[in-house]
Amino acid sequence: MQNRNPFSWRKKQMARSIYGYENPRETTGRIVCANCHLANKPVEIEVPQAVLPDTVFEAIVRIPYDMQLKQVLANGKKGGLNVGAVLILPEGFELAPTDRISPELKEKIGQFVFQSYRPQ
């Protein structure tokens, strides 16, 4: 019987969580989140039908959920749910650099955080 060090495993998992996965798909093909697996929700995504090369475009992801639901925060108080999504861009596509994003789009993006899952 082999002993496993659970702390070592957890430490590796935490490192993956912090830095993101190289590939956000499990071996079964299921798309996974880099930080949690707490829920599966249906999503709606809105993207252009066609995009010209070197064009900045907007992808809108909607995740319908009950806004009244709360989670326990680090300070022990109740707060809004953390909600996120994994968006896999086709080969050759990448996130636009900040200097190419219009002020209107920057305002829409607001405080959203983007975590890359592949090496830059």
Automatic annotation (TrEMBL):
Gene Ontology CC terms: chloroplast thylakoid membrane
One BP term from GO: photosynthesis
Organism: Rhynchospora breviuscula
Identification of the protein by name: Cytochrome f large domain-containing protein
GO MF term list: electron transfer activity; heme binding; iron ion binding
Residue span(s) of domain Cytochrome f large: 20-119
Major localisation: membrane
The keyword Transmembrane helix is assigned to this record: yes
Keywords, in A-Z order: Membrane, Photosynthesis, Thylakoid, Transmembrane, Transmembrane helix
Cross-referenced InterPro entries: Cyt_f (IPR002325), Cyt_f_lg_dom (IPR024094), Cyt_f_lg_dom_sf (IPR036826)
Annotated localization: Membrane
Top-level taxonomy: Eukaryota, Viridiplantae, Streptophyta, Embryophyta, Tracheophyta
